Structures are given as structure tokens and as C-alpha cells.
Amino acid sequence: MKNRKKLYEGKAKILYKGPEANTLIQYFKDDATAFNNKKKAQIPGKGVLNNFISELIMTRLKDINIPTHFIKRINMREQLIKKLEIIPIEVVVRNIATGSLVKRLGIKDGKILSRPIIEFYLKDDKLNDPLVSEEHILVFDWASHHELEEIISLSSRINDFLTGYFFSLNIRLIDFKLEFGRFWKNDETSVILADEISPDNCRLWDLKTNKKLDKDRFRQDLGDVDKAYKEVAYRLGVLSENEFKKVIKNDL
Ligand code: ADP
Ligand code: UDP
User: Fold this and answer.
1) Rounded to 5 degrees, what are φ and ψ at 48?
2) What is the pLDDT of residues 182-216, one digit of tens each?
3) Alpha-carbon distance 137 to 105, whole Å?
4) Separation between Cα atoms, residue 236 and residue 215, nearest integer Å
5) Nearest to 239 by CA among 31, 80, 81, 77
6) Under 8 Å CB-to-CB from 149, ≥6 apart: which residues?
7) In this predicted model, what pLDDT tens digit does every residue of 120-156 receive, in sequence order?
8) pLDDT range class, residue 245, cuts 50, 70, 90
9) In angstroms, what is the span from residue 86 Cα to ligand 1's centroid?
10) Residues within a 6 A CB radius of ligand 2
11) Ligand 1, from 179, 180, 193: best to mutate by most atoms within 8 Å of Cβ?
């Protein structure tokens, strides 16, 4: 890792140059941030858990023919991924009203939506990731009409699949954020799922108790953030408690 060229350091991950021109290495940090970087902390082991959780979810999505950037997990904190041109839109899919939707529109927290809602936010920390419409995306050329259709179709399929997948683990998928990118091949581009899918960017509630098993525990100072992420990892069957303990002991 030492001699690798760092291309970008974000709030939760670092991107390094990959072994081939069209690849990158994605490193998962333990840093947690919220409220556009105003609140910061380290959650020991979070990066390892998110690496494993995201690997599993991306692999399952590939099994149902969703194109993803994930190639393989390299080690406890790193993945080899396809290098994409990121479409500067954060796609949020919601099944249950909470978070910014509740604050913005005064909807009752926890209301089950009559159908999933797909929202778009401009990926721009300086502007606080503002909510934008499809019209904005098209007029300002953030994505083409065809790309937008593809993004909506993929997001909807991902939501249907993940809702059922988490339900089988007694977890309710409340909402989540996706990022997509363009992959160039022979002068043509296709839209591919990027970034990560983990408790950092999904809201996951225990089906029976409504206990929050995601980053809201950090945002809202609910405590036991690491325990919640571990719980998700165990339920998904990606890392046993013993394996995780061993990793963390050698890792820190
Ligand atoms: P942020 O940039 O919001 O602080 P992260 O710390 O998660 O977020 O950094 C990861 C960055 O890598 C994000 O900006 C994301 O858009 C970008 N990214 C994710 N997947 C890819 C990919 N396959 N190719 C290029 N960039 C990617
Ligand atoms: N989300 C995210 N990154 C962001 C904003 C939101 O991953 O920059 C996720 C968040 O974890 C939640 C969903 O998107 O699962 C919807 O978040 P919301 O708009 O309610 O925002 P928040 O309440 O986090 O401000």
C-alpha cells in the first residue's frame, strides 16, 4: 500500500491508482462524518465491516445482473474496482419516511410510503448536496436522458432486491443512497453502480424492535455504532465475531 499513488481522499474512503488503467483501489477508512463533515469521529473497525458488507451486496447485485464497479476484495480494507466517471448525483431511494424527508415536508416519521420514492441530490459538499429535479439533471447535463432512465431503472431494481434480502434477515430497508458512474469501452459508455452499499449509506431498522442498525446511531448519538454495524455484518453472514476480533487486533 505504501508506494501506491493516492488519487483522492474522501470522508470515508481513499482511492488509489489500480494495477490497470481502468481500475482503482478503494480503501475503507474508519472515519465517520455527518452533517456535511461538521461531526467527525473514528469508529474502530467500521472500514473493515463496510468493505465486507459492500462486497457481499455488490456480489449479490451482480448475481441479478446489476452492473457494478466491484471486481474483487483485495484485503480487509481494500477492493479492486472499475474506474468510472462519477455522475455527480446522489440517488436516494426511500421506502419509509424519515430523515431529511420528514424534516423538509413535515411527514410523520416512520410512515410507510405507498410506493418507493426516488430523489436526486447534486453531489456538491460546498452547496450542501441540494435536492434537484430530473429537469435540472438534464438541462445542466449532469446526465443524459438515457443515463437518467438507466439510473432510475437500476435504482428501482436494487431497492426491490435489497428490500427482500434485508427482510429475510429481519431488517427493514428504510432508505439508502446510491452513486453511479460512466464506464468507457470502445468509445461507448454504460451506467454502472459505484461507491459502496453499507450501513454508512443505508438506513436499516430491526424488523421487530425498530432498533437502528446504521449511521443514524452516530448522527443521533445513540451509541453502540460499532455494535450495530457488526450486527448487520453477522446477519449478512460476512464476518463471524471471532474473525472480526482477530482482524481488528492485527489491524489497529
Ligand atoms: P466523499 O467523496 O463524499 O467524501 P468517500 O469518502 O466515500 O466520499 O469517497 C469515495 C469517492 O470515490 C466518492 O467521491 C465517490 O464518488 C468516488 N467513487 C466511488 N466509486 C468510484 C469509481 N468506481 N470510480 C471513480 N470514483 C468512484
Ligand atoms: N445519505 C448518504 N449520504 C448523504 C446523504 C444521505 O449516504 O450525503 C443516505 C442516508 O444514510 C440515508 C439516505 O441517504 O440512508 C437518505 O438520507 P436523508 O436525505 O434522509 O438525509 P439525512 O437525514 O442523512 O440528512
Assistant:
1) -65, -45
2) 999 888 999 999 999 999 999 999 999 999 999 99
3) 22
4) 17
5) 77
6) none
7) 999 999 999 999 999 999 999 999 999 999 999 999 9
8) confident
9) 8
10) 90, 92, 99-101, 129, 175-177, 201-203, 215
11) 179
Question: Looking at residue 127, what DSSP letter applies?
Answer: G
Domain 85-206 part of CATH 3.50.50.60:
no
The bridge status of strand 13-17 relative to strand 112-122 is unpaired
Non-local CB neighbours of 204 within 8 Å, separated by 6+ positions: 166, 171, 172, 173, 174, 212, 213, 214, 232
Which pLDDT value is given to residue 1?
54
Angstrom CA distances, 226 to 30, 148, 222, 233, stand at: 10, 35, 11, 11
Count of residues in the chain: 252
